Amino acid sequence: xxxxxxxxxxxxxxxxxxxxxxxxxxxxxxxxxxxxxxxxxxxxxxxxxxxxxxxxxxxxxxxxxxxxxxxxxxxxxxxxxxxxxxxxxxxxxxxxxxxxxxxxxxxxxxxxxxxxxxxxxxxxxxxxxxxxxxxxxxxxxxxxxxxxxxxxxxxxxxxxxxxxxxxxxxxxxxxxxxxxxxxxxxxxxxxxxxxxxxxxxxxxxxxxxxxxxxxxxxxxxxxxxxxxxxxxxxxxxxxxxxxxxxxxxxxxxxxxxxxxxxxxxxxxxxxxxxxxxxxxxxxxxxxxxxxxxxxxxxxxxxxxxxxxxxxxxxxxxxxxxxxxxxxxxxxxxxxxxxxxxxxxxx
Length: 346
Known about the structure:
By secondary structure, the protein is of the alpha/beta class. The chain has 2 domains: 3-97, Udp-n-acetylmuramoylalanyl-d-glutamate--2,6- Diaminopimelate Ligase, Chain: A, domain 1 (3-Layer(aba) Sandwich); 102-318, UDP N-Acetylglucosamine Acyltransferase, domain 1.
């Protein structure tokens, strides 16, 4: 698709400096800009690139000062926030790339299933009994949606996603390839012979609105009740959420992190990559858990930052880290002192 600088400025409420009729059909980094591409400048560390870029249009802030002239082939669009404006254009570009409608064959849709308007169902998809699919939903090939599941409006389920029975997915959710929603929680009870008897997992998983789940993640269904991912939460690739967990509003969990059974994360919690929370804990709002940390007890203080395994206050961890990095040298010093004392006492 091709747009003029004037059309883009009108969409963003921006002010043009240069040729408003110049056309762009691609997006690029400012340092890699080519003729016919649109880029942006928000980080002032990249300002020098604007003087040499071959991009046709660059979006930048009203208050960004340029110390010399740009190429005459470059048109500038001044806006209040270049980063957010470019993100808006990226979203539009992304939506145009995945814009599909219709039902491909072969696919299976149960007679009792309800499919909304303007939906896409890819080849080899399976939609079970009594499933309810909202409007503008995209279900990519090889996706499975189990019986009695509800998917809200404007959702995208990429190839290979598996949603087990009785789950609920809200509006504007995105689930990336090969993620599993609603698999059995890890529930087993040992008997007198130390054999493990499976505890049936009869609950479900609920994703509230505006949730995004990365690829190859797994969200287990509750033993009873629901595993809940609250509004606006974002989970990266390879994230494990165990049964009866509650992830709070606008939480962000980086790749490889996990939350064990029945733990609750408050609002705006951030977990770094490969961080973990053991079961039956409560994590307060706005807590930050550094990557590869292991949280073994509840965190009651809002906004606390923890690190380490077991995790504790990040400042204490960093001071301790300086000390235990020097333990070998300290050991050598102690051995030297002991040898000197022995020689003095001879």
